[in-house]
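S.,

Sequence below, as promised.
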Amino acid sequence: MSNSLFGSIDFNSRALELQAERGRVLASNIANADTPNYKARDFNFQQALGAATAATAAGRAGAIEPARTSAAHLGGSSAAVSTVSLQYRAPLQSSVDGNSVDLDVERANFAENSVRYEATLRFLNGQIKQMMTAINGQ
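The prediction came back faster than expected:
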């Protein structure tokens, strides 16, 4: 029963992690728009989400967690983010300095990703509120 209750929340939390990672990748592209020979990177969100959910369904966390030899060490990356395979984006127009970042494309992708992130976050909050209402009866 708990599997069915938390399955949707787990799926949305993995999507949220991947959207946050994609936001970091796109922000890195934008920040390096003037860096010579920098190649724009991105990943296929749908494939990464499929791999992350398949890893969860198979009962494994996705990647091997690094050993923590001290209590002060931070944990490794999440299972969803470890399924990301960064790829270089083919430039739409060549540039003299070898940079493949197109600011218009990057800004559009960043804005779309931000909207999707916020929508997923609102949906996840709604699911948690519904569960709390069912538990509390209020």
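The beta strands are 41-42, 87-88.

Coffee later?
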